[in-house]
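Hi everyone, sorry if this is the wrong subforum. Our group has a chain we'd like a structural model of before ordering constructs, and none of us has done structure prediction before. Sequence below.
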Amino acid sequence: MSNEQNRSFGVFKPVGHVVISFPDAAAAARAETALATLGLPPGAVRRYSDHEMLAQIDADIAKASPIAAIGQEMNLILAHRELAKRGYHWLVVGAGSDEQARAIADTSRAHGAERAQHYGHFIIEELIERADDEAQVAESPDRGLDAQTPSGKEAERAA
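Answer:
Right subforum, don't worry. Here is the predicted structure as tokens:
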């Protein structure tokens, strides 16, 4: 994730990729195996442990520009940090189109993915909706990412 082309104002923003979180390493491994059936090009899938993600996020936070707080990138990495602290593992998968991103998310969800965000140039789209999600209310640099839980905090979703 350290590649500068995957950054916006110093924080992780892998445009053209789907960032997927799993509650454990086994679920991530199952999804990675299943994604091979989608015909992705070699090197399209990158796997991160909870420790690797936490280290990368902490490095990003330490060097992030104040401008990063204007968009949702900082809110997302803070939500990802909360999940990484709870032991979540990650796949970052290149997606050549919106349709391919949805196929990646659907395949991952079938193998235990909790979240999948498709990073575009101007929008980051959540691809996994859960039946127990609350209606989205608001997101801002002050409020953070709306995790669609009663409190609006990612920590509650991951509990």
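For your construct planning: The CA atoms of residues 146 and 152 lie 5 Å apart. The chain has one domain: 10-158.
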